[in-house]
Design brief:
- With 137 residues, this protein is α+β, with helices and mostly antiparallel strands.
- The protein is 18% helix and 39% strand.
- The protein contains 2 helices and 8 strands; from the N terminus they run βαββββαβββ.
- It has helices at 15-26, 88-99; strands at residues 4-11, 29-34, 49-55, 61-66, 79-85, 103-110, 116-121, 127-132.
- A hairpin with a 5-residue loop joins strand 7 (116-121) and strand 8.
- The longest helix has 12 residues, at 15-26.
- The termini are close together.
């Protein structure tokens, strides 16, 4: 897999409806993962979307999720740029440069779903998410 750069949208509890709407608009394959399926089964947010990804026949990728518990949803600030793939060296290099002089919200480290993931805001105020998956064998 090569690295991918795409928008990542944040929602206030209606990510499922929004992502299903985008699926109707653009077509393609939609995958939705809930907080409940990701280890928070007893949470009041169990049915909310932790991660959604739409891949379209035109080659578009759109990701989105409900704002995680404990984080504030800020209308007008509802996007990030997502970098993902399995080239750890390349993606860590991007992370180091993007986070330098900015702020780190989630350190780039192994997460409960098995990937290495981090969130930062670069020195220009642009929010980034970096996800490093295991190389396909």
């Amino acid at each position: 897999m090569s690295s991918r750069l795409n928008p990542y949208l944040s929602f206030d509890g209606d990510a499922r409806q929004a992502m299903e709407f985008y699926e109707q608009v653009f077509g393609g394959t939609l995958a939705l993962n809930t907080f409940g399926a990701s280890g928070m089964a007893d949470s009041p947010d169990a049915d909310k979307i932790m991660h959604g990804m739409l891949e379209t026949p035109s080659g578009f990728t759109l990701m989105g999720a409900d704002t995680p518990p404990g984080m504030e949803h800020s209308p007008g600030n509802t996007f990030s740029v997502s970098l993902s793939g399995d080239d750890e060296t390349e993606l860590r290099g991007y992370w180091e440069q993007l986070s330098a002089g900015g702020s780190v919200a989630v350190p780039l480290e192994k997460q409960m779903w098995g990937d290495v993931f981090g969130m930062c805001t670069d020195r220009f105020g642009v929010p980034w998410m970096v996800n490093i998956s295991e190389p396909a064998s």
